[in-house]
């Protein structure tokens, strides 16, 4: 499933000032929070402690070919992590491998984070945001240009990006160690 951004929803405009966004601020802790969320929600998870350590090593040993990301959404008033998207990128292709929404309320933090990330990916030079297998909760994004692409087409795009230096860089949107106040978007 390929996602294209649409930032301008009423919900985003109404609630964006409630949140801050960071990138890789607490990678391992955020990934562990995703694992715990999925364990509670479905009784198990594919996310193991070994995987978290391995992905964190990949993040720290960053290369031009593969980059590893934790996109974290924080509630301003409480300082708590409310949603995150764990992902990686190869060239100008961005691929999330797990997401979690820890606070579920009328603000729809997970949906808001997806929309904001779409905008940031476009601004940072990414050309494709691959969501993997389409689940029913993704239907709300169909109106924003998401489309199914055949598996072989995706892998051809992926292989084409391997080994290429990419101008796409999410740190152009939010620098390492910095916080983005969504109210400014």
Question: How do the helices and strands line up, and which of them pair or pack?
Answer:
Elements: E1 2-3, H1 10-15, E2 19-23, H2 27-42, H3 49-60, E3 66-75, E4 81-90, E5 93-101, H4 109-123, E6 128-130, H5 151-161, E7 180-181
Helix pairs in contact: 2-3
Distance between the termini: 26 Å
Q: Uncertain regions: pLDDT < 50 for 5+ in a row?
A: 1-6
Secondary structure category: alpha+beta
What's the overall average pLDDT, rounded?
86
Q: What order do the helices and strands follow?
A: EHEHHEEEHEHE
Topology, number of strands: 7
Q: What's the tally of helices?
A: 5
Radius of gyration: 16 Å
The proportion of strand residues reads 15-25%
Name the overall outline: globular
* Spatial strand arrangement across the major sheet: 1-6-5-4-3-2-7
Please describe the biggest sheet, giving its number of strands, its sense, and whether it closes into a barrel: 7 strands, mixed
User: Roughly how much helix do the residues carry, as a percent range?
Assistant: 25-40%
């Amino acid at each position: 499933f390929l996602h294209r951004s649409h930032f301008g929803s009423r919900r985003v405009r109404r609630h964006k000032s409630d949140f801050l966004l960071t990138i890789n601020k607490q990678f391992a802790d955020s990934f562990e929070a995703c694992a715990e969320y999925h364990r509670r929600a479905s009784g198990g998870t594919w996310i193991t402690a070994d995987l978290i350590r391995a992905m964190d090593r990949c993040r720290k040993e960053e290369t031009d070919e593969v980059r590893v990301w934790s996109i974290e959404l924080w509630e301003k008033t409480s300082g708590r992590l409310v949603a995150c998207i764990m992902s990686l990128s190869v060239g100008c292709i961005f691929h999330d491998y797990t997401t979690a929404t820890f606070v579920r309320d009328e603000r729809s933090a997970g949906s808001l984070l997806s929309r904001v990330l779409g905008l940031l990916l476009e601004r940072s030079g990414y050309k494709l945001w691959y969501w993997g297998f389409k689940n029913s909760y993704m239907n709300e994004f169909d109106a924003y240009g998401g489309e199914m692409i055949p598996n072989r087409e995706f892998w051809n795009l992926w292989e084409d990006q391997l080994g290429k230096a990419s101008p796409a860089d999410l740190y152009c949107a939010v620098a390492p160690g910095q916080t983005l106040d969504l109210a400014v978007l």
